Amino acid sequence: MIEGITKIGEYEWELPVGYVKGMLVPGRFFLSEKLTATLEEGALQQLAQVATMPGIINHSLAMPDIHWGYGFPIGGVAAFDYQTGVISPGGVGFDINCGVRLLTTPLTLKDLAQKKEILDALYDAVPVGVGARSSLRLSDKQLETMMADGAGFAVAEGYGNADDLLHCEEQGRMKEAEPSHVSRKARSRGVPQSGTLGAGNHFLEIQTVDEIYDESAAKAFGIEKGQICMMVHCGSRGLGHQVCTDHLQVLEQATSKYHIHLPDKQLACAPLTSPEGKAYFGGMAAAANYAWANRQIITHQIRKVLTRMCGISYDDIRLVYDVAHNVAKIEDHDINGKNTRVCVHRKGATRAFGPGCPDVPLDYASTGQPVIIPGSMGSSSYLLKGTDVAMNRTFGSTCHGAGRVLSRSQAKKKIQGKTIRETLGKAGIMVKAPHDSAIAEEAPDAYKSSLEVVSVVHNLGISRLVARLEPVGVIKG
Amino acid sequence: MSFEEKEHTADILMHIRAGNLEDLFSEAGHALMKTIYRGQTKQEMEISIQVVGETPEHLLHSFLSELLFESEVANIVFSEFLVTIEDNKARIIMRGEPFCSPVHGGGTEVKGISWHNLSITREKDEYSCDILFDV
Predict the structure, then answer these.
(1) CA A235 → CA A454, A469, B134, distances in Å?
(2) CATH code of B90's domain
C-alpha cells in the first residue's frame, strides 16, 4: 500500500491532513484489500488536493471505483458549506450529468430471436460515435426550453410519458438552471447533438436480469428475473463540454480574485455565493437538464424500435430510474446533528438517497432510490438501492461504475477489437460499434471487476445490491 | 517535432515537443486531431482563428479549446496549422477537409482540454509540454 495511508476499517482508508500541503480535512476512501492493488498514487494526490478547497466539510471522499482523473479523482465526492464553500467544474467534469438510465420491458430472452435485427434498428435510430449528428432540428427556442425544463421538455415534445419524469433524479430537471449562462458556442454544439449517444464509454445495452438479491426492492423497482431491460449511458454532449470549458476560464480568474490558493489549476473554483460561482452553477444545471432531455429522447427511440419489432406497446417499456454521476447539487445534509445546506460534488459518483429522503420517488419512498451501476462492456451491471448509511457517511453517495485500470492505449495494445467482438459473440453478447478500435478501448480487461466494486459499497452499506443484469447486446459509441 | 501518448488511466495524456513555440502549438493541434479522427486528410478548406492569453499555456489551452469547437461545429478534420504568436496573441490558419465517417471515424471523442499539469518548458532549443484531453 502507498505510504502515508491508514486503514481505519475493513473497507475504509484515511489520508491524513498533511498528505499534501494545505489540507483542511482528511481524505477518506473505500476499497477492499483486493482493490488496493489498483490504487494509483496520482488518484490519492488528487483526493488530497480536493481537501485543500475552502469550505469542504468532514472529508474529501472517494468511492471504490477511484481512479486518476483531472481536478477531482474519478469516484470523488466532496460537500462544501453553502455559505463559506466553493463550486468547481473540476469536481463535475466536462461531461456534465453524464448518467445512466434503466428501462424494463415485458420481454424475455426467448422474445429476442431477432436480436441482431433489433440491435441494427437501435443502431440506426440512435446516432452514435464521433461526428454523429442528430436528425432533430431544434430551434433556438426549443434548445432554450430543453435547458430550462430538461426531460420535461422532451416529454412535452412527445418523447415519452409524464410518468418517466417521476423516475428521474431531480425529476429530470434542476430548477436552478440558468440558460443565460450557456454561451452561443455551447448552444451551437448542443443543437446537432441532441438525442445522440456520443462515443468512448457511452453505450446502449440490451440486458437480461440474471439474479435478484433483494426480492422486496426488486419488486418495488419493477424488476423480475429473466426480464429484458435496456440501459443507456450518456451525458450532455458538446453543449455540456463547452459549458465546462467556458466557465473554467472565468473561474480560473475568480480563484485569484477571491484569494483562493489551489495546488492544481483544474480545481479552479469560486465561492458558491459569488457571481462567478452562481453563473457556473446555473450553466451547469442547464447542461444537466440538456443531458436528461437527451437520455429521454434516446429512450423514445428505443421504445419506437421495440414496439415496432417486438409487438409490445410503448407504455410497456417502463423507466426504472435515471441517475446523474457527474454533477454538483445543492442539498441539505445532517452535519454533526445540524441540518446544513451544502453543495455536493459527485464526479464519477452516484447519488444514493435512502428511504424517505426528499426527491426519492413516492413509489420508491420506503425502499430508497434506485442506484444504477453500469459494468464495462460485456460485463455485469448492477441495480442497487440507496441507504441511510450513505446519508450519514457519504453525503448520500456511492460508486458509479467499475473504474478503469488500463489506459486506452494499453487496452488497444493488449487486445484487438475484432477479437473482443468474437469472444463476446461466443458468450452470446452481440456488439455493434462504428469501428473495432472503439471496442478495444473499452475492453472488459481495461476495467476493475464491477462485482468487486459493488461488493465494497454493499458491504459498507452505502448502497445495497438489488439485482444483477447481464448484457446480451451492446451498442458502443 | 513530435507528439506521443503517455500513460494515463482515464484520459489521453499527450507529450508534445518542438523546436519553437509555433511548432509546439501546431503539433498539439495534430495530437488533438489524431486523437479524435483517423485516416488521411486533405487540405481543402481553411479557417482562421485568433486567441489571446496571459501566458503561453493560456494561449495553447485557448487554441486547443477553439480547435475542438471549430472542428465539431464546422465538422472539419484539420491537418495543417500555420501558427503566428505575438505577445499575448496567437493567430492560427487551420486547413482540413469535411468529416467523413468511413474515412475519419473510429477515433476517440475528446470532451475538453484540461489544465492538468499543463506547463510549457524550454530546454536549449526544445519546447515541450504535457497536455491531457478528457475523453
Answers:
(1) 22, 22, 14
(2) 3.55.10.10
